[in-house]
Amino acid sequence: MSAIANIEKLSADNYATWSVQVKSLLITLDLWDVVICDCPSDESGKSVWFKNDQKALATITLCVKPSELVHIKSCVTSKEAWRVLNSIYRKDSAGRKVSLFKRLIHFKVSMQDKFATRVNEFCSIVDELKEVGVIVPDDFASILLLCSLPDEMESFVVAIESRDNLPKIDVLVSKILETEIRQNDKSAVNDEKVFLTKSRKFGAKRFEHTRSNIICFKCGKAGHIRSQCRGFVAKENSSDKACCLFETKSQNRDMWLFDSGASSHMCMDKKFFNELEPKRQEIVLASGETIYAQGIGSVSLKTEFTNIKLHNVWYVPELTSNFFSIGKALKYGHTVKFSKNNAIMKTGKGENMLSAKFVGGAFVVKMALKKTAQKVNAIVETKQSVKWHERFGHVNMNDIRTLYNKN
After folding, report:
1. InterPro entries of this UniProt entry (predicted)?
2. In a domain, 177, yes or no
3. Which residues pair with 324 in a beta bridge?
């Protein structure tokens, strides 16, 4: 009886899951045979079969909502009751197939949803389609599930797309749930930081008095928070240093961040450009802040594997990092393969172009300015300097260079 209590009673919209659960229950009770088989002809087996059939009929009846009992109250065998319910609730019509397929195609997940629940709903729709005779291939199911993910998971989607083969649906589901767990861990850390900030608003003195009430999420001890825990600080020291690189412009000129959200390459240093056409363009950052590009041109760079040239790169001096657009690279036929700690970009022929390391929460590639590009810049600067030297009445060349460097 406890097993029956755990099964949701049959209603108008849960037959797919109900039938699986009740079938499993009848198999566990050794009663499924009487549902799918006819009564034996020999007299010795009839009495046992009839007894088991009544048990199976009673089990099915107890798993049906009172409002739905009207359909099987006149049934005298479990086989008849099962057949009647199947014919009423299992709709294999074209309309049912279209309805399920629409639900699958328009399925969407938001960051506010619990991923485990929503992904289970997606898989249930796939199973229901299978029951009505529509088989959804694994690759197609994986593609639809990836398309249903929110924009905030774009980097995860790009990482999956960069693989040679799409993962099977069960593997993809596992990866999505792992991602949700990591995001929840990050949220917990952010909540902890917010708590610390709010406490400090009341003054440092009061904050010191309340330190004894704070519990560290890392070691469980009182008096400090996770970010101040000795074990945590030691473990995260390298990541903290990496994050500082992105905040210090002078240390970050050779660093390029892999960005799946950027529609174009962006560079903060004019010295990287082979040629630069003055052009003003609005740039909207992920934070919502708007800055402006001052020009567009090409950049020649040297990676650990080869020399590359980036075209239509925006010159954005207000940036604190250079941005390498993954989308732009994919359009040119290149491929990117991500792993836990690094990413490799290859040409369409499979040759290595560059590699990026995962530091400070982002994939970063270090690319030096190609020497030929430096010479070109020097030539351009020299020509420009001579031109302005003449226009300003042959003033000192050092003053011309100072004006040039200050734009």
Report:
1. PolX-like_BBD, Znf_CCHC, Znf_CCHC_sf
2. no
3. 258
Boundary (domain end) residue, out of 247, 277, 307: 247
In whole angstroms, give the CA distance from residue 78 to residue 55: 8
Count helices and strands in the chain by DSSP H and E runs: 15, 11
The Cα angle at residue 272 between residues 287 and 365, in degrees rounded to 5: 60
Which of 62, 89, 116 delimits the end of a domain?
Answer: 89
Q: Could you tell me the CATH number of the domain that includes residue 260?
A: 2.40.70.10
**51: β partners:** none
The pair of structure tokens assigned to 117 is 């629940």
Residue 179 lies in a domain: no
Residue 166 and residue 138: Cα distance in Å, rounded? 9
Residue 85 token pair: 């319910």
Amino acid at 314: W
pTM score above 0.85 = no
Q: State the CB neighbour count (10 A cutoff) for residue 112.
A: 6
How far apart, in whole angstroms, are the C-alpha atoms of residue 267 and residue 256?
A: 8
| Number of domains forming the structure of the chain | 4
Give 10-residue mean pLDDT values along the chain (407 residues): 79 82 92 89 84 93 91 92 87 78 90 86 87 87 90 84 83 85 63 46 44 56 59 44 37 76 85 89 77 90 86 88 86 84 86 85 78 44 57 60 60
Cβ(166)–Cβ(139) below 8 Å: yes
